[in-house]
Amino acid sequence: MNAPAIAIVGAGPAGFYAADALVRRLPDCTLDLVERLPCPFGLVRGGVAPDHPGTKAVIRQFERTLSRPNVALFGNVEVGRDVLPAEFAQFYDATLYCTGALRDRRLEIPGEDLPGVFGSAQFVSWYNAIPCEPRPAPRLPGTAAVILGQGNVAADIARMLARAPEELAATDISAPAWEVLAAARLTDIFVIGRRSAAWASFSALELEELGAIERAEPRVEPCDLEQGIPQDMPQERRQAAERNLEILRGFAARAPQGRPVRLHFVFNARPAAILGSTHAEGIRLERTRMEGARAIATGSFFEIAAGTVVSAIGYRSVPIPGLAFDEARGTVHNEDGRVEAGVYAAGWCRRGPQGVIPANRADALAVAERIAADLGAQAQVAKPGRAALDALLRSRGIRWIDAARWRRIDAAEVARGASRKPREKFLSIEEMLRAAGAD
Ligand code: NAP
């Protein structure tokens, strides 16, 4: 076989894990990582909370992959806008889409477009300085905030709101977000689940951490917690549910300590409407009861006043014009990672937004194996790859960021951190391009 030309669209965890597997398996290939933003690393840079720096250590491994002589970065290139999927298919022997799930699922309730209501993707992008579509940044008015959903993204957001500003000052949080958090006067943060406590999706470590924030105390009503694991709960969830219930029982047993912030866990409450006319003023919730694994609405409503509502109820992938999309699942249409001949998908855009960062590794490795096997079965691979993409981008006047330019951005951000924090991220694509010398 000649040296195959492979493109990976999306330089996040799944893209990097797949790139690493492919260059090991096919050492002669050329592999191009194409990324919408000028900066690589996807959710590791833009999703992981600033107070979890250990989770970002995997970037060192991704940097090593990027340093391999046959790997190139094409940052600031948006597929579907700058280059079409059909053009990738023409230029590359295999194209693997690892574009993640960037769009918030909607609540589909009245008032969700009011100022003061945010999807978690938007909220997390704000504190992680990820350039996204312009919308007013959070201001966090008043003393209460509501977070809808009881998964690890909700836990991340609750921690970021509950921590003292001094604790966050030495992280890579964006400077404007830090200023808003430092000026906020939040005393009550409500983390709300539509199902009962046993069905909460927090990982035990993340839940425990919510009880260990210096200036905050968790509040749980003991009567809200099941005595045992619901009979209908699938076997694979039972152990995690048992652990979560134990942690929540510990929270419920704590005597009030008079700390400045209270983290309220509310269960069996389904969002019904956001209250307010010009800005969010609170939320109306409907009590639910469990019937098996399902939360059934009871017709009994209550309200919580809050100036900020963040919905952390999961994500969808963004459809790419020219690439088959499964509207119902919100993912790239695929069968075990195969989209069509020579086109593949891996990570959250393949299987939906589930699983921690290392879970994408197994997925990416399996799809990389499939690509290697399909390429191995071909008598000849002869597509032009990088040279053709390079020429097309030049002809369209697109300024892309290669690995050397990314390193300039990286070094400039670290320098802006001025030893006070790991880095001060740039807030806009224009600033990044300027730092890269690509404006
Ligand atoms: P998630 O774990 O699926 O949690 C989503 C939450 O939203 C669930 O509580 C779900 O309740 C609720 N929800 C969904 N639709 C709703 C609706 N219409 N109304 C009210 N509530 C609704 O998703 P996630 O928190 O976005 O996390 C995504 C993945 O990233 C997860 O696998 C997570 O573990 C991972 N992650 C990990 C970390 C970490 O390891 N530190 C950090 C962040 C994210 P139901 O159960 O009732 O559907």
Characterization of the model:
Helix 1 links the parallel strand 1 and strand 2. The two termini are about 40 Å apart. Helix 1 runs parallel beside helix 12, helix 6 packs parallel to helix 9 and helix 14 packs across helix 15. The chain has helices at about 15-25, 40-45, 60-65, 85-90, 120-125, 150-160, 165-170, 175-185, 205-210, 235-255, 350, 360-375, 385-395, 405-415, 430-435; strands spanning about 5-10, 30-35, 70-75, 95, 105, 115-120, 145-150, 190, 215-220, 260-265, 270-275, 280-290, 295-305, 310, 315, 325, 330, 340, 345. The mean pLDDT is about 95. It is α/β, with parallel strands linked by helices and about 450 residues long. It folds into two domains: about 5-100 and about 315-435, NAD(P)-binding Rossmann-like Domain (Rossmann fold, 3-Layer(aba) Sandwich); about 105-315, FAD/NAD(P)-binding domain (3-Layer(bba) Sandwich), CATH 3.50.50.60. It contains 15 helices and 19 strands. About 35% of the residues lie in helices and about 20% in strands. The strands form five sheets. It has a six-stranded mixed β-sheet with strand order 3-2-1-4-19-18, with helices on both faces. It has a six-stranded parallel β-sheet with strand order 6-14-7-8-10-9. Strands 11-12-13 form a three-stranded antiparallel β-sheet, with no helix packed on it. The structure holds NADP nicotinamide-adenine-dinucleotide phosphate.
Bound molecules: NADP nicotinamide-adenine-dinucleotide phosphate
The CATH topology annotation of the largest domain reads as: Rossmann fold
CATH class assignment of the largest domain: Alpha Beta
Give the oligomeric state: single chain
Q: Report low-confidence residues grouped into runs of 5 or more.
A: none
CATH superfamily of the largest domain: NAD(P)-binding Rossmann-like Domain
Count of helical stretches? 15
Count of β-strands: 19
Helix content: 25-40%
Strand order of the largest sheet: 3-2-1-4-19-18
**CATH architectural grouping of the largest domain:** 3-Layer(aba) Sandwich
Beta-sheet strand percentage?
Answer: 15-25%
**What characteristic shape results from the CA principal axes?**
globular
Helix and strand composition category:
alpha/beta
Radius of gyration, Cα only, in angstroms? 23 Å
How many separate structural domains? 2
Mean pLDDT comes to 96
Largest sheet: 6 strands, mixed
